[in-house]
Specification:
Layout: E1 8-9, H1 20-31, E2 36-40, E3 49-55, E4 58-65, E5 68-73, E6 88-90, E7 95-96, E8 103-104, E9 110-112, E10 131-137, E11 140-144, H2 152-167, E12 173-182, H3 186-193, H4 199-202, E13 216-220, E14 224-230, H5 235-248, E15 255-261, E16 265-270, E17 273-283, E18 286-295, H6 303-339, E19 348-349, H7 356-367, H8 373-384
Antiparallel strand pairs: 1-19, 2-11, 3-4, 3-6, 4-5, 5-10, 7-8, 8-9, 10-11, 12-18, 13-14, 14-15, 15-16, 16-17, 17-18
Length: about 400
Amino acid sequence: MFVNDTHMPQRLAPSLYTSAEHLEREMERMFQPGWHCIGALSDLPNEGDYFTRTLFEKPLICWKTGGEVHTFLNVCTHRFSLLRDKPCGHMGEHLKCQYHGWEYDCHGDTQKIPDAQSFKPMAKGELGLRKFRTETAGQLIFVTLNDTVGGLREFLGDYLYDMCERWFTPDHDLVCPLDIVHECNWKVVIENVLEGYHIGEVHPNSLGVYPDEKCCSHEFHEFWDLYIDDYSTVPMNARPDRIMSKLIGYEPDYKWKHLLRYPNVVFGQMAMFTWVQMVLPVSPSECHAMWRIFCYPGKRGRLKSRILSKALRFWGRRFMSKVIGEDEAVYPAVHDGIAAPMRPRGGLISTREERIFPFQDYVLKMTGEDAFLTKERDIEEERQQPMTVATDGD
């Protein structure tokens, strides 16, 4: 059952989805102080592998060396070229700039400078790379751009940190890595994943209809929330779990779990599949979503697990890509409706969508926008008034 028994108001004014000034406030107060998932250990299978990312307009390079993962600003200190401009590759024991061949170690210190005598006098390590704090939870790689925030466990909290350790173990295989640019405000994507009310219209052939309220429950915490769909009494949904559990040898719980760590880290679990989704703003009307979807085919090394892993990867890649694509197709229309210069009266959040309400409250609290809401509503009411058309008899 849901927590609320009546609908709730839309808390965020439409201008907060389109305002560059508000996005600046979100970046400063919600995103810059946090930890951000930029990939998984599966993206770095071998010693010396690297991948590149852009996080809030900052180019990053994530590199595995000495069995550890390190993240640096992807800019050489010599003449400011990108160290690497490919999305991924292999580097070896030193990080090497593609332009003049300067090399750096795992601390970011210079190790080799071609024609070094022409740079004298310069002490070893004088021009080191900018390094960012990097931690893992299970297979997930997180980085923070803020030197003063606490550690990853503190940010996620014990429950979510330990959950990552269970959901993304070395025995989980990467099924589908996706990186998508959406043409909408980042909050449109987050609010979409927080509710299942759109399932019947947007996902009729992939997800079907939304589940019975009796099977659903919501939990709300200070910095995160949890949705659980218990489908143990729905034979059509429970049967695949039952069959796969016998093949793999795990105890099924017949629950679909979905969590949001405010403001933008989404975790999910359904049967043998787990995933993380990271949504990052690019502009008021554009955002980037990174997905890493995993499956659990059983303990590594078994023939049955290897065969099952291939089947699960094939099915999971097709199914998840289809569902994500269906959502992606509707995002621009949602954003354009919110951004329209005239809108009808409305803005209601149903009990089935109730996870949106505390998320919106969190945004208001963190950005200090509550004080501006009354003025925004007055402007909105005026904008929504029907136009009066004069006639000849007036």
